[in-house]
Amino acid sequence: MPTTDGKADGTSTPSRILDAALASFATRGYEATSLDALAAGLEVRKQTILYWFPSKEVLLDAVIDRSAVELSEALEGSLATAGTGWVRVEAVVRSVFRLAARQPELLGLVREMGRLGPPAATRFVAALEPLVGRASGFLEAEMDSGHMRRHEPRLLLLAIYSTVIGMLTEVELLRALGVEPTARSLVRRRAEILDLLRSALVTVP
Amino acid sequence: MPTTDGKADGTSTPSRILDAALASFATRGYEATSLDALAAGLEVRKQTILYWFPSKEVLLDAVIDRSAVELSEALEGSLATAGTGWVRVEAVVRSVFRLAARQPELLGLVREMGRLGPPAATRFVAALEPLVGRASGFLEAEMDSGHMRRHEPRLLLLAIYSTVIGMLTEVELLRALGVEPTARSLVRRRAEILDLLRSALVTVP
DNA sequence: AGATCTGTCTACCATATGGTAAGTGACCAA
DNA sequence: TTGGTCACTTACCATATGGTAGACAGATCT
Predict the structure, then answer these.
(1) B133 touches strand D (CB under 7 A)
(2) What's the confidence (pLDDT) of residue B5?
(3) In B, residues 13-72, which contact A (CB 8 Å cutoff)?
(4) For A26, A152, B76, B181, which has the most beta carbons within 10 A of its beta carbon?
């Protein structure tokens, strides 16, 4: 497999392939995505894809790796925010929503991880482990210092994660509930979730 | 397509097909499930499946319909619990966890709905609409009477749903977080989620 | 100029997939 | 006994899939 992307301006062929693959994996799913369909969308032959990524699985790994880096960078940034406990939680949630507005596929891929058993999912989670560790440690510290209600930090993290991801990716359900997934409604959902989380976490108003 | 299931004792061929299909759709996904694999697991020829369900899509619809009924029945029951606001929320959450312990595939299918666009997902959500309506109405009434913090009821419902489903189905993530998905941990997760929800919802301790 | 390397393409291929057509044996009513 | 229905089977088929082999044009190196 070639190791360089040629021009690194984001429009090189391998980079475009990764973009398309991420989008399709996130929405249709990995197994339901065919290399032919991917290639057709890129106006390229399937063999071009197989030239850069010698198998579909390698392509998946590449998508996962790149996405994990992007996710990590976006979240590490907001996690580094200074300030008391709740402000930081809020900053992280806001940055996830920003991410969802800009690159919804990234969040979709996170959801897809569940189905892709140990080989792929493990890789993804492993890449995000430092982030999870930091977040978990932060929550624990805040609970120790009495700023937040005491909970099992890792379960709390999972609950927050589930809520946010659900609110952002359950488009079908939203529509069925009469909430059109527009930019406006995204803001409302964000407000709603922050409100909920604050009630659940912060000890005294 | 034949309309009767022969013996309705749950071991009739069509019933067994539905069971296997539900399990596979919920874990591997609809598109990733092949009729051949399904048939092999049932020790039956693929054409037997196509005899009872003339196409894969019809099979999916049947799985959805049956699952929606089972889900509805289980939840309607606990929603009918008497008592003040929080007790009922708790009863519903507990019954979802009970369902998750007994029939994890049902919850898995719910998650799968998101990916299956409008034809299938709409059918599922439509079948559950009365339930959602009742739950939403209940939440609104509780907020009106001051037992619960005011929130947009349908968004609140989505948040609760996402949290519960996430806690129950994100097995990969749980494992990565060091939480082995055992029966013990299920109880802990249930306690954790009830605690969180109570903090977030109930007005006065 | 000639050789080599790069990126993409055309030409195939084995296998798997959803689905059609046509049986086969057991049972059952006339 | 025979004709028909039921549950299920074997025999196929068109298409789609991931992947291999190798050709071809252009750039780069010697």
Answers:
(1) no
(2) 47
(3) 27-29, 31-32
(4) A26
Burial of B70 (0-12, 13-18, 19+ CB in 10 A): middle
- Rounded to an integer, what distance in angstroms lies between the CA atom of residue A15 and that of residue B194? 44
Answer whether any strand D atom is within 7 A of the Cβ of B6.
yes
CA distances B41 to A203, B21, B157, Å, are 52, 10, 37
Residue B52: band (very low, low, confident or very high) from pLDDT cuts 50, 70, 90: very high
Nearest to B29 among A29, A113, A152 (CB): A29
Instruction: Kindly identify which residue of chain B lies nearest to residue A28, measuring between CA atoms.
Output: B115
DSSP, collapsed to helix, strand or coil, labels residue A202 as strand
Contact of A176 with B122, CB cutoff 8 Å: yes
Taking only the tens place, the pLDDT of each residue in A147-193 is 888 888 888 888 888 888 888 887 777 777 777 878 888 888 889 88
Q: Is the pTM of this model over 0.85?
A: no
